[in-house]
């Protein structure tokens, strides 16, 4: 009786490897198309097919953000099960957010001071009329705007801090309802698992999306 040959079984290529291959192929194809410089390729392939597929992939990634945040946060809040513990965890998370934000701002200011972007740039002959920088909001406005006036609009506009605040409030309210929230918790767990499957579907197309973005 013949034994199965190990050569018949092939190892699956990881998604990371596929994405790297897509990046490399995109660089090669982009360089070739640059050398060819064909009007048909530039119009229909690069600005047409590649631009369309690349934009579809980026839009699909953006599509995942809000549902993932909503359902994963609700499941996380409900999974803690105790409002007092949630308060301690939330306080630490908020303090960590403030600390990392402060570090990010400090690093940005430090690098800008060292590099000096725009220093020595000649503005003569450039019309700057009608151009004005946006005024920075006060600290009080930043904190006040965390509370959304319309949670649906916040989700539509991708206002993450407002979304997080609203979702946490909903999770706390669900905890306060106790056993009445059992069905709601199961539905959120299902939606969280469903969104993870959607992530898998979108990421399966990542090598092709990356290829088109790089080649374009």
- Average the pLDDT over all residues and give the rounded result: 86
Biggest beta sheet summary? none
Structural Rg? 25 Å
Flag low-confidence runs: none
**Global geometry:** extended
Q: Beta fraction of the residues? A: under 5%
End-to-end C-alpha gap: 54 Å
Total beta strand runs: 0
Give me the number of helical elements: 8
Helix content: over 70%
Order of helices and strands: HHHHHHHH
Label the structural class.
mainly alpha
Provide an overview of this structure.
- The protein is mainly alpha-helical.
- 75% of the residues lie in helices and 0% in strands.
- Helix 1 packs parallel to helix 8, helix 2 runs parallel beside helix 6 and helix 2 runs antiparallel to helix 7.
- The chain starts with 14 loop residues before the first helix and ends with a helix.
- The model has no long low-confidence stretch (mean pLDDT 86).
Q: Which features characterize this protein?
A:
mainly alpha, 216 residues, extended
Structure described in brief:
The chain has 216 residues and is mostly helical. The protein contains 8 helices and no strands.
Set out the fold topology.
Elements: H1 15-36, H2 39-80, H3 83-115, H4 139-144, H5 151-157, H6 160-177, H7 182-204, H8 206-215
